[in-house]
Amino acid sequence: MNVKNNIQSIQISDYGYPLPDERIAKYPLPQRDCSKLLVYSKGNIDTRVFNELPACLPPNACLVFNNTKVIQARLQFFKQTGSRIEIFCLEPIVPSAYDLMFQQTATCTWKCMVGNLKKWKSGLLEKEVNVKGSPLHLQAERILTQGNTSHICFTWDREDCTFAEVLDAFGELPIPPYLNRSTEESDKTTYQTVYSKIKGSVAAPTAGLHFTDTVLNDIEKSGSKRCEVTLHVGAGTFQPVKAEQIGGHTMHTEVIEVKRESIALLQQQLGAIVAVGTTSVRTIESLYYLGCRVASGCTDMVVEQWEPYECTATLSAKEALQALLDYLDAQGASTLHASTRIIIAPGYTFKLVSALITNFHQPHSTLLLLLAAFVGDEWHRIYDYALANDYRFLSYGDSSLLMP
Question: What is the pLDDT of residues 13-27, one digit of tens each?
């Protein structure tokens, strides 16, 4: 049986553990960097405080941060009948580029999930709110529905307002469903990393929620380097694995952007790369396969779900990253634009990542599979330790530094 078949036959039931509801952190700690930090190094497990992270890092580490910013992607409308329709913006359609989308001033189209869709047979949804001190009228029209998503065209009557401002005024931050509570005003701050810059995610890269400016400064003082990439986290990050075997699960597509200078830094720091969160892992591991693509003459910049287990390229990580640098130079481009559906599961061979900072993930999730791919069967011992030592779990919970 080949590697791909081995991966696809993984039983998702083997990646579960008991997670009582009271262990799920419903709110963050008042001070981000006072959370617990589980340090796993060469088989040893220890408990530290997150603000001690700089002292726990390997020598000359290069930390890779996902600088995406969560948007207020959930919009509530009410029909004249009183029926509530919720529109959840997933990814831009027209225009398709995130930066252009948020600059739109009259109309735009998004791929969305629609709650209570059966109550919205036809017609426009309308809502009015004050933006910058004046009323703005927003309309939503459903253009088509494909599977469990719809294309929604938004229009508004204020040319001085961008769609970014429309979302800020109309939208609600989409906190994870497993928190079992409504979004609160405090979430607008606490559910963003302090280094978030590029709008586009519908979920936070939660390992980054523990960092403060003080910790970031201490990391630089310790001699470690910082590198930023962008992966816009989609709603699929919360999608449960319903198939019995992982081969029956379809990964969602996520947009990635990486500056040339970041790719060059990663190439220089091979062997010392510390990924901050699973989204950073998916981004920088995808770079290897994108490099293999351009080296073979392929310019379709999409990493497919099973590509790592089908790829026959024998490039080193350094060679793959050099191929990307050469590709960007030939294009006269300063930023790599691509997308990825990569699934990382036990049996995967990591190409760039040497250490990982991550939170504690849901049972039976693709994020737990990624963790198990990184530390092997030790994930059981790590999670047993966290459960026995009162660690807080999931998005607003504690974190770990994993150095196999």
Answer: 999 999 999 999 999
